[in-house]
TrEMBL record, chain B:
Lineage, opening ranks: Bacteria, Bacillati, Bacillota, Bacilli, Bacillales
UniProt cross-references to SUPFAM superfamilies, sorted A to Z: MetI-like
Gene Ontology CC: plasma membrane
Protein name (database record): Carbohydrate ABC transporter permease
Segments traversing the membrane: 12-35, 75-99, 111-130, 142-162, 183-205, 262-281
Protein's membrane topology: Multi-pass membrane protein
Organism of provenance: Cohnella fermenti
Domain ABC transmembrane type-1: 75-275
Length: 302, 296
């Protein structure tokens, strides 16, 4: 009886896993085979196996002069580093939110500030376009009316402001939601530490400085290293919607460069080569960051 | 001395709340502004800047948009991918997660690890594009549903939850002769509604917001997001196209809408589901990242 049960269950268990495991392979690992396009002169419609093998020609072309690779690397790194620089903001926000005494008000603030995290970048762009566009944008209209500026400014097409502006967009969208992770960490700090600090005469500010911030440091370190590990992972959707002819030189990232080469100019091989370069470099950075995390906290992120 | 500290503490409290409310305005006002623009009379609002209140009140923009076949179709496709995609993700990922908790399943650890690694593996946009095309998913509704059937992050959440369920109920069902599938469907799933709700709500928001697959591979199955994107990138010509279509809808309203009023209204329609859903389900989102954070 028991053996039959286990045997039929064995069948069933495979039925409950194999199709899904197959989907995982099909949609996540099979596309990796497409990397071979970077090593052949791929012509859409023709099989990869029938294409001419060219070795590292496309990588040489990529690193050769005239390409946009240096620009793309600079922009990707700049946006990545600015994002990391901005990351303490969500920790500070979390401390400020937990300082609000009234429970309902605190909840309301929390919900309102984290809402932008859940809208798509198309809507984010629609909002920023509405507020900052050069003709009819609300911010320009207001500043003109108050005579603070004499001509409308085109922030969306301003090359030199691009990095900071894009960082602002990310902060606006994600800060409230990131703060929630810290709020969770704050509630798990031992209350006795606060009581002890009170006895020592510490006020609100001193308690935040000497109890809350040290208590949040482990969380902060892990999240920081996670974002370092994801340094090259600039958000393609964001870059895609905010990209335009005016800000191109400061916004073209590795992802965007790859997309442009492959799906706009139809040079699939070059586009893939850019993608392979990005993936391999990212993996190296991720493992390095993971090594550091292991050293510091004994945990591993991968 | 003590009273001075109490005073500064209260002052800080007040300023803190004011600062936070200012941030709240920065996050909420954009949505509010787009809403009041979408219900303002298009003719009036294009000549007079509004800030706090709509200029007049009309639903003409919404009437026009939903009167258009292509917009109604996009809303339908968005809703369909959200419902079907969420159902498929939750069902497949939870069944997979349950089977992976059974020690008698061989290679379960290997399969689990390979699945988790997908969080860090990305082939890049062009290999992805070529592969999906090769699978025949171009302009195929399955493109919205199949690739997201198994999501590693939800797999971690759900599997962790299953492992914490009391084993006694499963055991008694097993003695009664129920097989592993029956136990999963009749006992484990009903007991796991909280975690399934978390996965469902995350998944629904993602489905509603996703547009890259639509943009690259399914131009003939446009969602609301794509319609908005097209409208943003090429306003004038899209309005012309809209107006040509509108001629057949109702001729009296045509002159009254403007590119901006239509844009605001499409933005509003694409945002509304999130604005309505998020505040009420926020605790599910939070419990989701908290479990995720503990595991990670």
């Amino acid at each position: 009886m028991t053996t039959t049960r286990t045997r039929t269950d064995g069948w069933l268990l495979w039925l409950m896993t194999l199709p899904f495991f197959l989907l995982v392979i099909l949609f996540n690992y099979v596309p990796l085979a497409g990397w071979s396009m970077a090593f052949v002169r791929y012509i859409p419609g023709l099989s990869i196996f029938k294409s001419e093998y060219v070795g590292f020609d496309y990588f040489q072309q990529l690193f050769g002069t005239g390409g946009e690779l240096p620009k793309a690397i600079t922009n990707t790194l700049a946006l990545g580093f600015l994002g990391i620089l901005a990351s303490p903001l969500s920790m500070i926000l979390a401390i400020l939110i937990t300082e609000v005494g009234q429970r309902r008000l605190r909840k309301f603030i929390q919900v309102a500030l984290s809402l932008p995290n859940f809208i798509s970048f198309i809507i984010v762009y629609a909002i920023f376009f509405t507020f900052f566009s050069v003709d009819g944008g609300l911010v320009n209209a207001l500043l003109l009316k108050l005579h603070l500026i004499s001509e409308p400014t085109n922030l969306l097409g301003n090359e030199s402001a691009t990095w900071l502006f894009q960082t602002f967009v990310v902060v606006w969208k994600t800060i409230g939601w990131s703060a929630i992770i810290y709020i969770g960490a704050i509630t798990s700090i031992d209350l006795e530490l606060y009581d002890a600090a009170s006895v020592d005469g510490a006020g609100r500010f001193k308690k935040a400085l000497h109890v809350t911030i040290p208590g949040l440091m482990p969380t902060f370190t892990v999240l920081l290293l996670l974002s370092v590990g994801n340094l090259l992972g600039s958000n393609f959707e964001q870059i895609f919607v905010f990209h335009n002819a005016l800000n191109h030189d400061r916004i073209v990232t590795l992802d965007y460069y790859s997309y442009q080469a492959g799906l706009v100019n139809f040079d699939f091989s070059l586009g893939t080569a850019i993608g392979v370069f990005k993936s391999v470099t990212s993996l190296v950075i991720l493992f390095a960051a993971n090594g550091v995390i292991k050293r510091i906290s004994g945990n591993s992120i991968i | 001395m003590v009273s001075r500290q109490a005073l500064s503490s209260r002052l800080f409290g007040t300023f803190n709340i004011l600062l936070l409310l200012l941030l709240v305005v920065l996050c909420i006002y954009p949505f509010y502004y787009i809403f009041i623009y979408s219900v303002s009379v298009p003719d009036q609002v294009s000549h007079r800047q509004i800030y706090l209140w709509p200029s007049g009140f009309t639903l003409i923009n919404y009437r026009q948009i939903f009167g258009l076949d292509e917009l109604a179709r996009a809303a339908f496709i968005s809703a369909a991918r959200t419902i079907a995609g969420t159902a498929v993700t939750v069902f497949c990922t939870s069944m997979y997660a349950y089977a992976l908790t059974k020690p008698q399943l061989r290679f379960r650890k290997t399969m689990y690890r390979i699945t988790l690694a997908t969080m860090y593996v990305s082939a890049g946009i062009i290999p992805w594009y070529i592969t999906m095309k090769a699978y025949g998913l171009k302009d195929n509704f399955l493109l919205y549903v199949l690739p997201t059937a198994i999501i590693a992050f939800y797999l971690v959440l759900i599997k962790t939850y299953f492992e914490q369920l009391p084993a006694a109920m499963e055991e008694s069902a097993m003695i009664d002769g129920a097989n592993v599938m029956t136990i999963f469907l009749r006992i484990v799933l009903p007991l796991s509604l909280p975690v399934l709700a978390v996965a469902a709500i995350f998944s629904a928001v993602n489905q509603w917001n996703t547009w890259t697959d639509n943009f690259f591979l399914a131009p003939n199955l446009p969602t609301m997001q794509l319609v908005l994107l097209n409208f943003l990138t090429d306003q004038t010509s899209n309005l012309m196209a809209l107006k040509t279509n509108m001629a057949t809808v109702s001729s009296s309203d045509i002159q009254q809408v403007t590119p901006t009023s239509i844009r605001m209204t499409i933005t509003m329609i694409a945002t509304l589901p999130i604005v309505f859903v998020y505040p009420f389900f926020q605790r599910y989102f939070i419990s989701g990242i908290m479990i995720g954070a503990v595991k990670g």
